[in-house]
Specification:
This protein is of the alpha/beta class. It contains twelve helices and 14 strands. Strands 6-5-1-9-10-11-12-13-14 form a nine-stranded mixed β-sheet, sandwiched between helices.
Length: about 325
């Protein structure tokens, strides 16, 4: 059994895709010309990634990945974090490792030699701020369970798992091992459902994890909630799952978010901003704000408010990593 340190070293340790985002603005006509799934996320192979990159205009490379984005937000607020994810021994792998360490996040997963290359997500941002993501998962799909540091997992108050990474076999096994380590150490497990297509493929697994009491905090958006529960009505979906997880957090885009915990329900409106530039990472940063408050045992409504503030910052510019001083922003908005 893994022993939990008396004083946790980390607030949150996360397992997720180690991805470099390649982002560029584009027209709706280009989305149609390339037959892309506007506003969604589509998996592509390496050749497809090269083809789409060639069709992009001037682009920015920014380290991303859903769980890594969440940790970047947490770290910016002052939380102690660590990340587990797989990169290749290549230039983009070096970019990812440098970027995540530069924001104060521990990242010690050994690089993977040979092919495939480090994962990348080609993101086309249309004038309405919708992001159309096309992801080549590359090396991130090959996170071996044996590289998992169970003691590091035990040293975190919360283990945060990215649903996207449940799809490939090796990282799925690594995440199952991490859940065992966290539960053995008396730590909490948080899980984000990530995308409807992941639920379509692995919903039975997720429902089993919930039924077995292995998920303490579940993050979903309204469409993922419907896919998980089979309930198209939002309130019916909430009702069907709220008693199965200790903390449920559901975002509703511009309509705010709701959380339920211990019989309490809290809601928050979306934080107003002047203009939505890019919705990439909104859910990831909402989770940052919520988790920051949660590990500090703040009231449920305040945790939601932190999430809304962090999400509003991220959609006010390109990219899924904070540009404003989130710590100062929280003080300004919350006092």
């Amino acid at each position: 059994m893994t022993e939990a340190p008396q004083d946790p070293r980390y607030d949150v340790i996360a397992i997720g895709n180690a991805i470099v985002d390649v982002m560029a603005p584009c027209s709706d006509d280009l989305i149609k010309e390339l037959s892309l799934n506007k506003g969604g996320m589509t998996l592509v192979d390496e050749e497809g990634a090269k083809r789409l990159y060639g069709a992009m205009g001037p682009a920015r490379e920014i380290s991303g990945g859903s769980a890594a984005n969440t940790l970047a937000g947490l770290s910016a607020m002052g939380a102690q974090c660590a990340f587990i994810g797989q990169v290749a021994d290549d230039q983009l792998g070096e970019v990812f490792a440098h970027d995540i360490r530069a924001v104060g996040i521990d990242f010690d997963t050994p690089v993977r030699a040979g092919q495939p290359a480090t994962a990348r997500c080609l993101i086309f941002v249309t004038p309405d701020a919708q992001r159309t993501m096309n992801t080549f998962l590359g090396a991130s799909q090959f996170l071996p369970p044996e590289t998992l540091d169970a003691n590091a997992v035990a040293a975190a108050k919360i283990l945060y798992l990215e649903g996207y990474l449940w799809d490939p076999e090796e990282p799925r096994a690594a995440m199952r091992r991490a859940i065992e380590a966290a539960r053995s150490a008396g730590r909490k497990v948080a899980f984000t459902l990530s995308e409807v297509f992941v639920i379509d493929r692995h919903g039975d697994d997720f429902r089993a994890l919930i039924a077995d009491g292995l998920i303490d905090i579940l993050f979903a958006n309204h469409t993922e909630l419907a896919a998980l529960t089979g309930e198209d009505d939002f309130e019916a979906g909430i009702a069907s799952i709220k008693d199965k997880v200790p903390t449920l957090v559901v975002t509703k885009g511009p309509d705010g978010a709701v959380a339920l915990q211990g019989g309490e329900r809290a809601e928050v409106a979306a934080e107003p901003i002047d203009k939505v530039i890019d919705t990439t990472g909104a859910g990831d940063l909402f989770a940052s704000g919520f988790l920051y408050g949660h590990v500090r045992e703040e009231p449920l409504g305040r945790c939601l408010h932190r999430g809304a503030i962090a999400a509003a910052e991220i959609i006010s510019h390109y990219g899924a990593r904070p540009e404003a001083d989130l710590k100062a922003l929280m003080v300004e908005k919350l006092g």
